[in-house]
Structure formats: structure tokens, C-alpha cells
Amino acid sequence: MEIRPTTDQDLDVFVDTLHAAFGRFPETPAEGGGGVWWSALEMERNLLAVAADGRPVGTAGAYSFELTLPGEILVPASGVTAVGVLPSHRRQGVLSAMMRHQLSELRARGEFLSVLLASEALIYRRFGYGPATYTQRLTVPRHQGALTLPRARGTADGPATGSDTGTVEVLRRAECGGILEEVYDRYRRAQPGALSRPHRWWASGAGQPPISPAPRYVAVHRDADGVPDGYASYSVGEANTLTVDETIAADDAVFTALAGFVLGHDLVAEVVFKHFPPQHPLRWQLADFRAGQVGGDTDWLWVRLLDVPRALTARGWFTDGELVLDVDDPFLGEHGRYLLTVRDGKADCVPTGREPDLSLDVSDLGSIYLGGTAPSTLVRAGHIRAHRPGVATVADALFRAERSPHCLHWF
């Protein structure tokens, strides 16, 4: 078997092989080739596994993204995608060989982390990936969608939520592509766990709504000066259900204004927020707390560290302290022990011979890296070993982020 990089001439073979791996057929591209997910593929970053007889049997790809780390720090991240093996060649080492080849290439590019969305939760942990952000669905019956007035007059972090002075305008998706791109880019730069959406995604309509050209209405929020600072992409479907693809907002007040707009839509039975951030305050803003029904609680972005010291010194930190981390990477056959020292928001991470505070798999380090999974949770689950009492609490404080990480982008 040979694993080789692809070129633009391999696009059809790559797409056909991947679809065959999942027993599906490619959709018909729109005129001009846009509107399909593969129109954003970076063919120079993809791999084909080819059998001895020359037949392609597996695929793996990667996108070039920026990932926002805690502290509003932007770093390059490879978005692993389009991974599949023909049913006739599974359990023969094809997937492992492709993943090992890909990780080696990412390191050769000088990258220190990669991310993916896992089609199956059992597959990718063995390659060193761990779930790091989560998402859910919030369903609110329209007749129970009234929002309460804010009781607080303001906080040290700003004015009380609900003191919005902006406006909401309804546009069709085709009318506001530039607005969506601009507003999303401002949002993702401040949101831990968010990925960039390169211009080629918007230009080609690759991905899911609102990137794709699928018919959607968009509620665009503008601030008091008329500058767009949020949007909600939505459609009304069967049973008069209004489904919000995603809500992007500069702050909680803008999110509340957009939520109030869709919750007040006429002739709608219920509103479904499809990609809702866990622990978002909207449920507390409903007059009837029980009106918001949470479902579809699942993992989203998985993180894999390729260079532990570089990754840990790249992100921002919000508590001083130190930990000795004993990190095992069985897939790459590597092991390291590191002293992590944090002072004034900056970290130093160096090899050490000191006794460890925590022993963990590289996939568990990926899970806690963005601050969305508490180390103590993985200690209680039996994944991370704490070597002394109280160290899990120290790790929780150290790894927390300024806000919960969340990723909306599908790739």
C-alpha cells in the first residue's frame, strides 16, 4: 500500500473514494461548482491510500484554519477532514497508516496542534485526539418564549444584558454574504475554541448554512451606529418549526436581541437553536425557566497536541501556578514529563525529572487544553491520575479559560 499526496487532478477520485467509504453518492454540484462541501478542499494537503493494484482505498484531508485559544490568541491549526476507508479494506491498518502519515506531515509543516470533528467517538481517541468543545440544541415553544427584563442595573463587566440599543433587519442569505463573513470573523477572534472561516469557504458556498447558498433568512443586528455586530440564520420548516442554524453575536445583549426576535416570530410553533453554547444564559432569561428544553448534547471540536511545550506556552492563562505533567502518546510512541509554570498570564513548559502531579494521555491533554473540560472531571472518570491530594483543584484553576470554548464551524 502507498500513501501519497493529492493534486488538483485527483479531486474526482478523492471525492468518489470518500463517498464510497461511507456508502453514499456525491451530490450534484451547483452551476460553477459551488455549494458543495468539497469546493473548499485544499488538494495539496490531502492524502490517498492506494492498494498494490493501483486502486484508491482510503482518503484523509486537512484544511488550513486559525484556532482561537484562551486569551484571544490566534494560532494555525490543521482541520482534519474527509477521512475514510473502503469497507473492503477496513481493519487492515489503512486508517492508522494514513493518520500516522498525516501527523508526521503536520509536524513537518511546523504545526503544534490539529483539530477534527469526529464522525464516531470511538475512533479518534486512539490517534491522540480528545473532545475539547461541546454543543447542544435548545428548543423553546413559541408561546413560552417570553424573555424577562434584566433585574441587574449593570456589572463590573459592562451594562446589564438586555440594554440593547441596536436594530434587527431581515435579509435573504444571498443579500448579506459579506456581512456574515465580516461579523463571523470578528466573533471568532474573541471566542475560545472558534475556527476561522477562510474567504474561499464563503466564496464557494462550501459547508453548511449560512455558508452554503441554501435559502435562509438572516436576522442581522446593527449597533446604534448601524454597524452589523450579530446575526441569526434561520428557516421555517415542517410543523411550523423555526430552526436557527447559528447565532453569532458580539456580546450577550446582541445575542438576547436576536433570540428575542426569532422567539417572537409570527405563526411559529417552536424555535430550535441548533448549535447552542452549553451554559449560555438564555435559559435564565426565559420567563418560564422550564420552557427551554436541552437536547442533542454532544462533543464538537476534538484537539490533538503535536508539540506539548509549544502548545501549552501558546495559550493564555489566568491563574498563576505550576504542575508537573507526565504525558503519554502511545500512538506516536512518545512520552514526556514537563514542568508547566504560569506567571502573569504566560506559561513556561520545559522537560523535568521531578515527580509528576498528573499523569495523562495526550488525548486527555487535548480535552483540557481549551478550558472546556475540567481536569478534575477526567480524574474522577479514571482517565487522569492525580498523584497528590488537591492537585486536581489546582489543575482546574490553571486550565480554565476566560469563557467557555465553543466552535460553530462544520468542516
From TrEMBL:
<feature type="binding site">
    <location>
        <begin position="119"/>
        <end position="120"/>
    </location>
    <ligand>
        <name>acetyl-CoA</name>
    </ligand>
</feature>
<keyword id="KW-0012">Acyltransferase</keyword>
<dbReference type="InterPro" id="IPR051554">
    <property type="entry name" value="Acetyltransferase_Eis"/>
</dbReference>
<dbReference type="GO" id="GO:0030649">
    <property type="term" value="P:aminoglycoside antibiotic catabolic process"/>
</dbReference>
<dbReference type="InterPro" id="IPR000182">
    <property type="entry name" value="GNAT_dom"/>
</dbReference>
<dbReference type="InterPro" id="IPR041380">
    <property type="entry name" value="Acetyltransf_17"/>
</dbReference>
<dbReference type="Pfam" id="PF13527">
    <property type="entry name" value="Acetyltransf_9"/>
</dbReference>
<feature type="binding site">
    <location>
        <begin position="91"/>
        <end position="96"/>
    </location>
    <ligand>
        <name>acetyl-CoA</name>
    </ligand>
</feature>
<protein>
    <submittedName>
        <fullName>UPF0256 protein</fullName>
    </submittedName>
</protein>
<comment type="similarity">
    <text>Belongs to the acetyltransferase Eis family.</text>
</comment>
<dbReference type="Pfam" id="PF17668">
    <property type="entry name" value="Acetyltransf_17"/>
</dbReference>
<dbReference type="InterPro" id="IPR016181">
    <property type="entry name" value="Acyl_CoA_acyltransferase"/>
</dbReference>
<dbReference type="InterPro" id="IPR036527">
    <property type="entry name" value="SCP2_sterol-bd_dom_sf"/>
</dbReference>
<dbReference type="InterPro" id="IPR022902">
    <property type="entry name" value="NAcTrfase_Eis"/>
</dbReference>
<feature type="domain" description="N-acetyltransferase">
    <location>
        <begin position="1"/>
        <end position="154"/>
    </location>
</feature>
<dbReference type="Pfam" id="PF13530">
    <property type="entry name" value="SCP2_2"/>
</dbReference>
<feature type="binding site">
    <location>
        <begin position="83"/>
        <end position="85"/>
    </location>
    <ligand>
        <name>acetyl-CoA</name>
    </ligand>
</feature>
<feature type="active site" description="Proton acceptor; via carboxylate">
    <location>
        <position position="411"/>
    </location>
</feature>
<comment type="subunit">
    <text>Homohexamer; trimer of dimers.</text>
</comment>
<keyword id="KW-0808">Transferase</keyword>
<dbReference type="InterPro" id="IPR025559">
    <property type="entry name" value="Eis_dom"/>
</dbReference>
<feature type="active site" description="Proton donor">
    <location>
        <position position="124"/>
    </location>
</feature>
<dbReference type="GO" id="GO:0034069">
    <property type="term" value="F:aminoglycoside N-acetyltransferase activity"/>
</dbReference>
